Amino acid sequence: SGSRPNPLAVGRVIGDVLDPFESTIPLLVTYGNRTVTNGGELKPSQVANQPQVIIGVNDPTALYTLVLVDPDAPSPSYPSFREYLHWMVTDIPATNAASFGMYVITYFHPFHRT
């Protein structure tokens, strides 16, 4: 059929951390000038600072929650901090950056994998 497997399913995020879902809201995540893509990898030095997150929905009544977890921290072969919470922001208004929400957990960069 030509369709590529979903990297979230291949990496066992879907099925292990999340139930299957269909993405319906555009989300733009950038670390500096590097855009995060589904299945893409970034080096620890590239994620040292909090990313910019923009939710691309134009609904003035909607509020969103952003959660950044590592499903197998510090490494897939030794996930001793399973589902480590790196960042949580709630009450993010639509069409705004996550920085406009309420910080529940401030950003803590992902660990270096060994």
Structure description:
The chain contains 2 helices and 6 strands, in the order H-H-E-E-E-E-E-E. It is mostly beta strands and 114 residues long. The chain has one domain: Phosphatidylethanolamine-binding Protein. The strands form 2 sheets. The chain has a 3-stranded antiparallel β-sheet with strand order 2-1-3, with no helix packed on it. A 3-stranded antiparallel β-sheet has the order 4-5-6, with no helix packed on it. The longest helix has 4 residues, at 7-10. The N and C termini lie far apart (37 Å). The mean pLDDT is 83.
Query: Percent range for helical residues?
Result: under 10%
**Low-confidence runs (pLDDT<50, min 5 residues)?**
none
Computed structural class? mainly beta
Strand order of the largest sheet: 2-1-3
Computed over alpha carbons, the radius of gyration is 15 Å
What oligomerization state is this entry in? single chain
Strand content: 25-35%
- How many domains make up the coordinates? 1
Order of helices and strands: HHEEEEEE
What is the mean predicted local confidence, pLDDT? 83
* The CATH architecture: Alpha-Beta Complex
Say how many strands there are: 6
Indicate the topology:
Layout: H1 7-10, H2 13-16, E1 27-31, E2 34-35, E3 52-55, E4 63-70, E5 84-93, E6 102-105
Antiparallel strand pairs: 1-2, 1-3, 4-5, 5-6
